[in-house]
Specification:
Blueprint: E1 9-13, E2 19-24, H1 35-49, E3 55-60, H2 65-73, E4 77-88, E5 91-101, H3 102-109
Parallel strand pairs: 2-3
Antiparallel strand pairs: 1-2, 3-5, 4-5
Length: 110
């Protein structure tokens, strides 16, 4: 959690499947300051090392270049595009899917 903020990173655990979806939101005031990158990196290590997950997934709006950059810097790989996945305020949007395996992260630690 950020200081003086209610912003958090959340996951949706798939139990015995050892995978989770990860999502985040950050107040505009904190954009571009590296907070999300630092939090996501710490959190992914925690989820793999302490909770024993083997896979993390994230889906973002393809127009959200900053979020794609955060995920890529944290080691996530773009795995695909789901067309017309969401409808928000009457607009239909695609969703890019990113994934990170524990084995991918382990390779960067060696």
């Amino acid at each position: 959690m950020l200081p003086n903020s209610s912003e958090t990173i959340r996951t949706s655990d798939s139990g015995h499947k050892k995978r989770s979806e990860i999502g985040y939101a950050l107040n505009r005031h904190y954009w571009g300051q590296g907070y999300m990158q630092e939090a996501l990196t710490f959190f992914t290590h925690y989820l793999f090392d302490e909770l024993g997950l083997r896979r993390l997934e994230a889906d973002i709006n393809p127009d959200n270049v900053a979020s794609a950059r955060v995920l890529t810097k944290a080691g996530f790989i773009k795995e695909g595009l789901l067309r017309h996945r969401w409808e928000f305020d009457g607009a239909v949007n695609d969703s890019e899917i990113y994934g990170l395996l524990k084995s991918d992260l382990d390779k960067t630690r060696d």
